[in-house]
Amino acid sequence: MKRVAILQSNYLPWKGYFDIINDVDLFIFYDDVQYTKNDWRNRNKIKTSDGTQWITIPIGAQNDLLINEVEVKGDVWKRKHFNSIKANYSRAPFYKNYKDFLETFYFGHEWTNLSEINQYLIVELSRILGIKTLFARSQDFSSTGNKTNRLISLLKEVEATHYISGPAAKSYLNTEAFYENNIELIYKGYEGYPIYPQSGATFEHSVSIIDLLFHTGAKAPYYIWGWRDE
């Protein structure tokens, strides 16, 4: 049995993204596809005392490019994002545990490519969470076709037996194609995540994974997938 997920990279994704990664043997970054504006590719949300706040990597007018072709604009955003995170989380109980990681990411690298930024963060955060999943990039395979056909091509190339997909894909995936190619299609559910100690009056699930790490530290995996074992 070989379980595989294929997703576009996001900037500092929420816990559900890592839930899928933990479910599979191989996670493939699907970044040689069209960049989508006002999506999660170059932005995410953090928690503040007044609710949520977007932190966005500036890319300018590059909406006609593939995700892995998108270049970031300047480096002012790095200091801005670090300062926003510090201002809102420095008093969180485990902020100091991950401060060095953030400083290395924001100030220890010269980032120019959005896909490289996202993939670096996702791989490193997965390791912090103790995830053992292997990673690959769709552009490194010879898959062909569009939409479902390309996914099937990728899955066959890596000899997948199960494909784990986010629930939003139900609206466009051709389920029959997976059956015809002997690949079991499983839709991931994001229901039931337990709340955790979080600053602010209203709890927010849909914020970056860093919120969970800052508030729960080494216990973060429990709030993503560990609770299901109870």
Could you explain the architecture of this structure?
There is one protein chain. The chain is of the alpha/beta class. The protein has one domain. The protein has 8 helices and 7 strands; from the N terminus they run βαβββαααβαβαβαα. It has a 5-stranded parallel sheet. The chain has a two-stranded antiparallel ribbon with strand order 3-4. Helix 2 (76-89) packs antiparallel against helix 3. The radius of gyration is 18 Å and the shape is globular.
Q: How many distinct helices?
A: 8
Tell me the major beta sheet.
5 strands, parallel
What is the percent of helical residues? 25-40%
Estimate what percentage of residues fall within beta strands: 5-15%
Domain count: the total is 1
* Rg: 18 Å
Low-confidence stretches: none
Question: What structural class do helix, strand and pairing data support?
Answer: alpha/beta
In which order are the strands of the major sheet placed?
A: 5-2-1-6-7
Shape estimate: globular
